[in-house]
């Protein structure tokens, strides 16, 4: 089984190198939150993204690139290089009051880059658990951390409210290192995080390579942005879409300011920048994934097919589009190999994709496990004479084929507000629980071909069964009332 075999081989058969044996590159990893597939300029959006378009156009666009449908799972795979079935995070997100986190069993990419001599910094959203000190970013390989620990909050006062046993638990969620920070109230988070990252660049000791992980809050709800960013979009009638467009504009500006800081500091010529989304756009909060099917939190392409691109003077080919299969878990081994780091102690599901991205070499993946979620509510009845239960929510990509089982979420095709007449509702029934698509020929999942190719369905179900045998139990503990910020001076902070 190719993917499972690769999972083991990466730990024992990796040739360490930097780019052409040269100086270790700086790495800038930018994550946009809930950013829809349709919402970047080069995908035909009415929302203007001149900076992102320019960076992508002068670099490498990844148009067969996948993330997870929700926040914590994508971030866990990004930082660990492992499928969520191997970290116990295969069900839902990490809630503010859950005693749950990315396990300590394996190193993060920050751990390994720091081991390779990098200065490592994280700015922005964490959302990988914080109930104990050891799970804070500062203890997961980062030399510094400034940001918020939960999954969402107010963009200005940085307050997060979470319900627990019908009680409202509210507090400020901003942490500097290990210490809660209540001094940033009133500062818009996109500006705040950009400026913090710029300060890191300005103060960086150039004798060491630099790694900055910048997971922005934008453009996740709540829909908030200074009015000046909304003004160019006054013509958009839908207030959610209009405000969201302004939030995208602020994000685009932030990326421009940060990349300019790299250039002014003389770092850009030896920097690899990666831009990625964490999941599909949330249509109920202004996002859009047209023409893809579904949206955030679904297993349809609109939930999984990410926006991704790489910009770097170190790319051998620039201004190109790659259509090889690439997954968010691939960044770990890609970065670590670029850094010439050691893979000792890692058990990875990702693949080093640098030659594919930079040179156009053959892709390293022929398949991709999107997820298997044993805790999600089952749908329909068991079908096919196979050991894998088709009532279970799962999705698998093998070559051009994608198999979905169980309950994938709403599969409607939602057009942007200006083209709302093109919207089509999900034709599935509640008894349906197996779908097969040829994504190369049918990228928008219009035609279920499971009845035409039962042999392919059976083969992919067998592979899902094989993956299931490698999974660890899903962890989704009950909330702990000791999380209450009122018990900790009005802030979100570790409670155990």
From TrEMBL:
| Alphabetical UniProt keywords | Calcium, Glycoprotein, Hydrolase, Metal-binding
Q: Which InterPro entries match?
A: Alkaline_phosphatase_core_sf, ARSB, Sulfatase_CS, Sulfatase_N
Q: Which residues form the Sulfatase N-terminal domain?
A: 25-340
Is Metal-binding there in the keyword field? yes
- Tell me a Gene Ontology molecular-function term this record carries: sulfuric ester hydrolase activity
Give the protein's cofactors. Answer: Ca(2+)
Pfam families from the entry? Answer: Sulfatase (PF00884)
> Which CDD domains does this chain map to?
4-S
Tell me which domain of life the UniProt entry assigns to the organism this sequence originates from.
Answer: Eukaryota
Q: Which family does it belong to?
A: Belongs to the sulfatase family.
Q: What name does the UniProt record give this protein? A: Sulfatase N-terminal domain-containing protein
Q: Give the organism, scientific name.
A: Lottia gigantea
Source taxonomy? Eukaryota, Metazoa, Spiralia, Lophotrochozoa, Mollusca
